[in-house]
Specification:
Length: 165
């Protein structure tokens, strides 16, 4: 797909860029769905549900969090996050501790076992992805590298405004 068009100020799209964006959305959406399904298969390969894997990664990136903060970050209800945390506790991957600022609340932290599990899982996933990337030709790999800034911006746009309003 070759894309041409003028850069417009934020919030305004001429007809041509709008059509390009519609075409891009139609191309990207099914790819995202396929990547999401592949990620779900990877999570199950490592013996984790998607939610538990995501919670572990969030805790590895952000440190200890209250369950309500985890639920908000994971876009799930507090009872759903609490159930996932309970399961991860049983596996020895997380521990709940009293919140030092509010003794009525708890903060969830990774245990050493949880940190090791996250590091090992991410290393295995990276190695798997690296093998797949090596099957692309140099131009395809460069195209992916060139797209990274735009993909990061797109992720940030979803994070800042999940409903696109």
């Amino acid at each position: 797909m070759i894309i041409q068009g003028d850069t417009m100020p934020t919030g305004t799209l001429s007809a041509a860029p709008a059509a390009i964006c519609r075409d891009l959305a139609g191309e990207i959406r099914p790819l995202l769905r396929s990547l999401d399904l592949a990620a779900r298969r990877e999570d199950s390969r490592f013996g984790l549900t998607r939610a538990r894997s995501s919670i572990l990664c969030t805790l590895a990136e952000r440190g200890g969090l209250r369950i309500s903060e985890l639920a908000r970050s994971e876009n799930v209800r507090v009872p759903t996050a609490s159930n996932a945390i309970r399961s991860l506790e049983e596996q020895g991957m997380v521990v709940r501790t009293a919140d030092h600022t509010d003794k009525r609340a708890v903060t969830v932290h990774l245990t050493d076992h949880g940190r090791d599990s996250v590091a090992r899982t991410l290393a295995e996933r990276d190695a798997d992805l690296e093998l797949r990337l090596l099957r692309l030709d140099a131009a395809q790999r460069q195209g992916l590298a060139d797209a990274l800034p735009a993909l990061r911006t797109l992720v940030d746009l979803y994070a800042g405004d999940p409903f696109g309003s």
